[in-house]
Amino acid sequence: MNILAISGSLRARSSNTNLLHAIVTLAPPNTEVRIYEGIGELPHFNPDLDRDEPPVAVQTWRDQLKWADGVILCTPEYANGVPGVLKNALDWIVSSGEFVDKPTVVISASPLQTGGEKAHTSLLLTLEMMTANITGKLTVPLVNQKVNEAYVITDAILEQEINQVLDGLLASQ
User: Shortest CA distance to 42 belongs to which of 3, 96, 1, 78?
Assistant: First the structure.
């Protein structure tokens, strides 16, 4: 199974991106997990640019989603919502439909006790409108205490929860 993992953060040492790198190490051997790193290269969504030949970064984004049998989205919460860069990326997919019936895991992770629950709820609403097949949901409070900068999950409960959502994603195939 090919899985595309997407972080909603552009920070170089983002705890959400660190969590995705940790997830890569938990994937079974017959599974390729690729972390998409082009989210910051996407232009601001503009329907006038969304034609037969969209901007190169948009086409690359869509091609990566087409390659994937499943998707893992992991996002922080900014100002009680989904970071603009992630919302922008999803806006480019509304008309082209790469998320239609796509098995998808939604994770929000935050250094706060709330675990980014408002961003999580907002992201789920967007993906449900796009008719993604949500196979797993998870909020991760206090993520900085559970995943280190070496991409190791240091919390046994979180590791179990990640394995459960991965199992659900893999079972969707």
Answer: 96
Instruction: Find all residues with CB under 8 Å of 69, minimum gap 6, and list them.
Output: 1, 2, 3, 103, 173
Retrieve residue 139's tokens: 């909020």
Summarize pLDDT for 97-148 with one digit per residue, the tens: 999 999 999 999 999 999 999 999 999 999 999 999 999 999 999 999 999 9
What is the CA angle 108-110-24, rounded to 5? 55
Q: Tell me: pLDDT of 12 over 90.
A: no
Euclidean distance between CA atoms 73 and 56, whole angstroms: 22
> What is this structure's pTM?
0.96
